[in-house]
Amino acid sequence: MFQKAKNIDTAFKGIKNFSIAFVAIYTLSGGMVMYTCLDMVKNMQGKIYVLANGKALEAYASDRKDNVHVEARDHIRSFHQYFFTLSPDEKYNQASIKRALYLADESAKQAYDNLRESNYYSNVVSGNVSQTITVDSIQLNTNVSPYAFRFYGKQEITRPSSVTIRSLVTEGQLRNVRRSDNNAHGFLIEKWITISNDDLSTKAR
Known about the structure:
Conjug_transposon_TraK
């Protein structure tokens, strides 16, 4: 009688221990599955698909703070290229300047108005002048907003009879604004001024 009770008690303890172990393993497995699923969802939320030329390309979303330095430098570079790249084509020049002015405030508009009033753009067209710009370097401080910058570059001005290389140094600051089709980086150049724009060399063609 006592032996049967002891066997029943042993069997009960065995079942109890097995049940506890089963629940613990089940809970642990469920937790791991849930963690894995949440991690997968998080990773999927960071992915986007862009349709280009009929093909779906995978891209990854990232925080603005991760790319602020790269985006700010590209914004500055794009503005200077639009503003200073000219050709003997009035419509091209107007379109390029228009794109540049979307990236900056009234300070850039004032610089454009001054050049226009001095007949700079009409002389470019009538004189069959081409002007391009190359970037030497961009100094940028992204530790404090608005972000102060200084741009160093060179202009190549090609006339029918000569090619002139000029240095170009400008400075200003960047303010965060809402992104748009005309301002993809979401920055606005403010207090933009030209520090120097001197001839470096001229050679005959």
